[in-house]
């Protein structure tokens, strides 16, 4: 699909919030979705978020979850156990004002940046006082956002150095 076609398709999509959703036979109710399953006994409706937010004093939260490491990464080929130079890494400054505005324009009210915490890596940041981690705890040379080693600092891979 061409980029322009994809942009038009995404721009035409309106996030919705289920307003009357019965549980299905499995006991699980459908979540935020424009296509909701129904049974002959019940009907489900979806209301565009903008209408719901206007109608309610308390706007419903719609969270856009993103892994910054992947979001701004320009490398398209990943090498097994590759370095950050080989596989690339998105940076926090990839979330520019226009990007944040477009996310908001899609109806999202919040962003959940996943994988921000400092995690184990074989990338050397000795100039910044950060030691290389033991390879036993590192998934790939560039590290993994799931191998958290510090619940206070942001991973240096996500900063522009």
Structure explained in plain terms:
Keywords: Glycosidase, Hydrolase. This is Glycosidase. One of its GO terms (molecular function) is hydrolase activity, acting on glycosyl bonds. With 161 residues, the protein is an alpha+beta fold. It folds into two domains: 1-49, no CATH class; 61-161, no CATH class. 21% of the residues lie in helices and 17% in strands. The strands form three sheets. It has a two-stranded antiparallel ribbon. Strands 3-4 form a two-stranded parallel sheet. The longest helix has 10 residues, at 3-12. The two termini are 35 Å apart.
The secondary structure category is alpha+beta
Report how far the terminal alpha carbons are from each other: 35 Å
- What is the ordering of alpha helices and beta strands? HEEHEHHHEEE
Return the domain count.
Answer: 2
Give the mean pLDDT: 73
How many strands, which pairing sense, and closed or not: the largest β-sheet?
2 strands, antiparallel
Please estimate the helix content. 10-25%
Assess the beta-strand content as a share of residues. 15-25%
Q: What's the alpha carbon Rg, rounded to whole Å?
A: 21 Å
Globally, the shape reads elongated
Tally of contiguous helical segments: 5
Q: Describe the strand arrangement of the main beta sheet, using strand numbers.
A: 1-2
Care to count the β-strands?
A: 6
The low-confidence parts are 1-47
